[in-house]
What we know:
Layout: E1 2-6, H1 13-25, E2 30-33, H2 44-55, H3 63-68, H4 79-91, H5 94-101, E3 107-109, E4 115-117, H6 133-142, E5 147-150, E6 157-162, E7 165-170, E8 176-178, E9 184-188, E10 202-208, E11 213-219, H7 223-232, H8 237-241
Amino acid sequence: MRVAIISDVHANLEALEVVLADIRSRQCQSIVCLGDFVGYGPNPNECVDLLSPLLQGRHVAGNHDWAAVGRLDIAFFNPYAAEAIRWTQRVLRPPVRHYLQALPTQWSQNGALPFLAVHASPRDPIEEYVLDGATARESFRQRQFSLCFIGHTHVPAVFLAVGDEVETRPFRAGEEIRLEAGVRYLINVGSVGQPRDGDPRASYALLDTAAAAVRLVRLEYPLQRTQEKMLGEGLPPILAERLSVGR
């Protein structure tokens, strides 16, 4: 079975449409979303409307989702992110707001290749940034899982644990990771709508449960159209500009 793992759409409709078209072309049986449907981008309602029917409950909340519905204080957001959240709060339609309010903090798949899905980290699903091996080690220690997918940092990465030893690796476009017995994996799938690893292409992961393998997919999309809409809505120009450089 092929499972698409996406995260951090951030109301970027152009990136989402390209990613969903690629997922369809690969005949994936299901899609899992790791949160942050909204925030930063100009199309929060449209992205939720397009994506939510495809997930069938395979979804979790991100920090921007919670902030957009008042479940998370934006006092610690940077000024540009906070401004985008305030704009999002004004434009969200009631059904979309209700959808975001009801998102769980974690989701798991059972079966031959079980995995856990959270937005930020297994020990703090909403806010913790896993950027290094030391932080990843704490999640491995505190939660029992063999495979967990995360987003939040917008930077694809792989953390591997064998006993107490944790290795950190970048996760590059087109790279395939073969999941080995006895190794635990914490895999960041990057961001659909706001990449920050220096590559402006949309990012998502493809899990092949039969082959026990995960591949990172990167896709170009018409980001200039997203930028035009962001500026037209009065969102901070820096949020539009950064899409060009993936930072």
